[in-house]
């Protein structure tokens, strides 16, 4: 136990130093943002101005939206919905055990912890579209490769968030369970899991929402769903139909969003 | 309850020492025998080593030297003995340590975990356990709150749920770590009398850490005074006189040191500050 004595002057000096440091950090951050914007031509206004008429032409060609084929979109939309639900469920199933291995406070060993983190990072860093292409090659066209791609990519993200929730758990009830003679597995299941349940539900529902949006693009690589229709209309330059499909997707996303909001409130 | 003293203590520690990583000594080699059925109070300032000693009694804190021996299960030196000992040695905490979003009943049932295998505990608890848990809640006067979420209960009620969870273990020993430190005086008294009464009824040995002298005097059969990681007093409450009290409530060594440094460094800058402010600015540890 070491004890320090701090005078008022020291305190004030430290306070002003902290202010200077924070200002410097903000300036540095702004510099990085500007540099990045310049690098990707966002600050090149001439280029931007030239693009505007083209966007205008495209917007004009997409108007008014053409809903004549809407009957053919219900089944692909259902595919997309089912893909997102199944993909998320599979992801959650594998994420829970992965999370316990990848959380500092519950991992059985340092090596296991590192390995689990590497696996999660690897899954996260392969985009779902690439996974979609791989699975289409492996199991053929349809909803199945889409589900597998969504699931596998989601584990990387969901597992990481679950692990973080576990790391922030209140240790007090955990200690109480150990004191009552609970075995390590019982501690995981009865003292940690109940505490992280709301966060788990939150992440899972958010991920479902994300997966629904992601599965609309999955169709582009032949992995089923409404994206397949979208890609078809885009290829034959039926922009009015593309616009209509985008509107339908917007309605669905809004519905999914509202539903997930309701579900999340239930798990508080 | 001096009459119940038996030659064999229900729990004993021998040369128990605890040093935390970083070299902080929480308990210097200490030996104590706890007698069956007694209400023991560990008395001392915060930081005196009460919590560390209590937590070493069920190895929540692993002692760095010495051993803990239970009359029923022997020396705590392996996982199996330890689990059995923990099952029969319930603990009550300062901040109750309940799962806030669970109901009182669910929390009390946690006390039964040690009696079931992991696989069995995945299923709903047996009827007998449920009845026992309800009975325990009834004993602390919270039968009607069984299905309320713990975060909707008051501080005193939460602590009583903590006691009910301890009782659900059907313990022979209860360790209580500052059980009333976060409660107001009138609630504190209620909680402590309840604990004392239940222990007396069931013949449970209690080891309770407290920092309030009046409670210690009122409830204890035996007071063990701790200061600076050492036992400085160990006898019945009526043996406690002013001299002994001064020993227990002496300032920790580190703080005294700090004051010396402060005196030495009293330079011109601080002359404007009142004496008190200088002390408040001290950051211990």
UniProtKB/TrEMBL annotation, chain A:
Domain ABC transmembrane type-1: 77-260
Highest taxon listed in the record's lineage: Bacteria
InterPro entries in alphabetical order: MetI-like, MetI-like_sf, PhnE/PtxC
Gene3D superfamilies: MetI-like
Location relative to the cell: Cell membrane
GO MF annotation list: ABC-type phosphonate transporter activity
Membrane spanning residue stretches: 23-40, 73-94, 129-152, 217-236, 242-263
Membrane association type: Multi-pass membrane protein
Keyword tags: Cell membrane, Membrane, Transmembrane, Transmembrane helix, Transport
GO cellular component, one term: plasma membrane
Similarity comment: family membership: Belongs to the binding-protein-dependent transport system permease family.
Alphabetized NCBIfam families for the sequence: PhnE
Protein name, as recorded: Phosphate-import permease protein PhnE
Gene name per UniProt: phnE
From TrEMBL, chain B:
Domain of life: Bacteria
Chain segments carrying region Disordered: 259-285
Gene Ontology cellular-component terms listed: plasma membrane
InterPro entries assigned to the protein according to its UniProt record, in alphabetical order: AAA+_ATPase, ABC_transporter-like_ATP-bd, ABC_transporter-like_CS, ABC_transpr_PhnC, MetN_ABC_transporter-like, P-loop_NTPase
Biased composition (Polar residues): 266-285
Pfam assignment, any one: ABC_tran
Domain ABC transporter: 11-253
Protein name: Glutamine transport ATP-binding protein GlnQ
Origin species: Methylophaga muralis
């Amino acid at each position: 136990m070491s004890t320090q004595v701090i005078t008022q002057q020291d305190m004030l000096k430290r306070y002003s130093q902290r202010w200077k440091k924070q200002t410097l950090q903000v300036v540095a951050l702004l510099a990085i943002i500007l540099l990045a914007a310049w690098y990707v031509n966002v600050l090149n206004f001439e280029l931007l101005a030239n693009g505007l008429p083209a966007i205008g032409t495209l917007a004009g060609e997409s108007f008014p939206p053409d809903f004549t084929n809407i009957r053919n979109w219900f089944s692909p939309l259902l595919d997309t919905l089912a893909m997102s639900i199944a993909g998320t469920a599979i992801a959650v199933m594998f994420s829970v055990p992965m999370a316990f291995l990848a959380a500092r406070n519950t991992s059985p060993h340092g090596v296991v912890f590192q390995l689990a983190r590497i696996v999660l990072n690897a899954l996260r860093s392969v985009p779902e579209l690439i996974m979609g292409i791989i699975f289409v090659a492996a199991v053929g066209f349809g909803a199945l490769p889409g589900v597998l791609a969504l699931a596998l990519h989601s584990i990387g993200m969901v597992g990481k968030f679950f692990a973080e929730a576990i790391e922030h758990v209140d240790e007090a009830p955990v200690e109480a369970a150990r004191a009552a003679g609970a075995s390590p597995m019982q501690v995981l299941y009865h003292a940690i899991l109940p505490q992280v349940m709301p966060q788990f539900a939150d992440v899972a529902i958010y991920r479902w929402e994300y997966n629904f949006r992601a599965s609309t693009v999955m169709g582009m690589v032949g992995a089923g769903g409404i994206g397949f229709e979208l890609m078809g209309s885009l290829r034959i330059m039926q922009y009015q139909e593309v616009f209509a499909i985008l509107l339908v997707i917007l309605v669905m996303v809004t519905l999914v969003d509202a539903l997930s909001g309701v579900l999340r409130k239930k798990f508080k | 309850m001096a009459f119940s003293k038996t030659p064999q203590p229900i729990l004993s520690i021998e040369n128990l020492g605890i040093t935390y990583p970083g070299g902080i000594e929480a308990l210097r080699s200490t030996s104590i025998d706890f007698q069956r059925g007694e209400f023991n109070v560990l008395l001392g300032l915060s930081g005196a080593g009460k919590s560390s000693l209590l937590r070493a009694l069920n190895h929540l804190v692993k002692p760095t030297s010495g051993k803990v021996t239970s009359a029923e299960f022997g020396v705590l030196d392996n996982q199996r003995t330890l689990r059995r000992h923990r099952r029969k040695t319930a603990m009550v905490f300062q901040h109750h340590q309940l799962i806030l979003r669970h109901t009182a009943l669910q929390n009390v049932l946690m006390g039964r975990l040690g009696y079931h295998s992991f696989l069995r505990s995945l299923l709903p608890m047996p009827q007998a356990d449920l009845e026992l848990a309800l009975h325990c809640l009834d004993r602390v006067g919270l039968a009607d709150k069984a299905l309320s979420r713990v975060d909707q209960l008051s501080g005193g009620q939460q602590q009583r749920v903590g006691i009910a969870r301890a009782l659900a273990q059907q313990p022979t020993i209860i360790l209580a770590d500052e059980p009333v430190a976060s409660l107001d005086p009138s609630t504190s008294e209620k909680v402590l009398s309840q604990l004392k009464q239940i222990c007396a009824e069931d013949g449970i040995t209690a080891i309770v850490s407290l920092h309030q002298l009046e409670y210690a005097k009122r409830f204890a059969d035996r007071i063990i005074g701790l200061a600076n990681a050492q036992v400085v007093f160990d006898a019945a409450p009526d043996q406690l006189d002013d001299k002994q009290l001064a020993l227990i409530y002496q300032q920790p060594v580190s703080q005294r040191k700090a004051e010396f440094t402060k005196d030495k460094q009293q330079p011109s800058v601080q002359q404007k500050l009142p004496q008190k402010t200088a002390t408040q600015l001290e950051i211990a540890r």
